[in-house]
Amino acid sequence: MKGCFLFLVAVVFLFSSSANACDRCLHSSKAAYFSSASALSSGACAYGSLATGFFAGHIAAAVPSIYKDGSGCGACFQVRCNDPKLCNTKGTTVMVTDLNKSNKTDLVLSSRAFRAMAVVGADRNLLRQGIVDIQYRRVPCDYGNKKMQVRVEESSKKPNYLAIKLLYQGGQTEVVAIDIAQVGSSNWGYMTRSHGAVWVTDKVPTGALQFRFVFTAGYDGKMVWSPRVLPPNWEAGKIYDAGVQITDIAQEGCDSCDDHIWN
Fold it and tell me: Per the database record, which ranges form the Expansin-like EG45 domain (predicted)?
């Protein structure tokens, strides 16, 4: 019953927040780049060195309105620059791995992602610009046939403390709640977001563990049940297959979308 209540609360939150969101709309802003990918991989989302493996290192730091106190970690955006002499028309897809506190740019890309926006042979000239005018929009994260994964953080301490983060979350969604229970039990507890993409609980059930992920989908929310994720002898620092993938698209109540401009 407690788990159902938490789900309903999350759905109400999702509906109210998505009605004001415009992630999928086309935005105009500016973007800069980090010369070192490590600056992004050690960022606020806490992906660590794993970050540079996402989308071949096409990652980005995003402003607070995109970062969303960590719920925007893992979100994907298509970004293209505006100068037709230097920039191609497709741009590149980046994944949010860090918080950008600058008021000059919405996004700070890895240098690899920044160069990918250039026409053939113009990548060095584009890098020399430092900051460029861009257009960007939210797009689904596509990991092909790869399932979502759960990484047990090094801060986890048996038997009472568990910290996890989700890797390779697909679709165009945000996880807003995670429930946890022993496999075969209906006694669900809840996890809280600690920082970035990290979720924690100090009430860890014994035995093998199952999860329920509540995330944005449609105009409200959806729950995905992962029946067996962590074995009884789970270990800190290891990655476990969630056995499920999220492919949903969150719909947003944005009245002034300019998606038709992107072609």
Answer: 42-146
> What number of H helices and E strands is found in the chain?
5, 14
Give pairs for 71-74: CB < 8 Å, separation 24+. Answer: 71/174, 71/175, 71/176, 71/193, 72/96, 72/174, 73/44, 73/45, 73/47, 73/97, 73/196, 73/197, 74/45, 74/141, 74/166, 74/169, 74/197
pLDDT tens digit sequence for 147-176: 999 999 999 999 999 999 999 999 999 999
Give the Å distances, CA to CA, from 73 to 81, 123, 184, 238, 246.
23, 27, 31, 20, 15
Give the separation between CA 127 and CA 125, rounded to whole angstroms.
5
The length of the chain is: 263
What pLDDT was estimated at residue 253?
A: 57
| pLDDT at 138 (0 to 100) | 94
Tokens of 76: 């994907």
Please return the burial class of 174, using the count of CB atoms within 10 Å of its CB with bins 0-12, 13-18 and 19+: buried
Show the tokens assigned to 120: 């053939």
Domains of the chain, start order: 27-138 (2.40.40.10), 148-244 (2.60.40.760)
In sequence order, which ranges of 64-159 are alpha helices (DSSP H)?
64-67, 111-116, 123-129
Residues 40 and 9: their CA atoms lie apart, in Å, by 33
Residue type, 258: D
As a whole number of angstroms, the distance between CA 1 and CA 93 comes to 41
What tokens does 123 get? Answer: 């990548």
DSSP 235: -
Tokens of 148: 């979502």
Predicted pLDDT of residue 5: 42
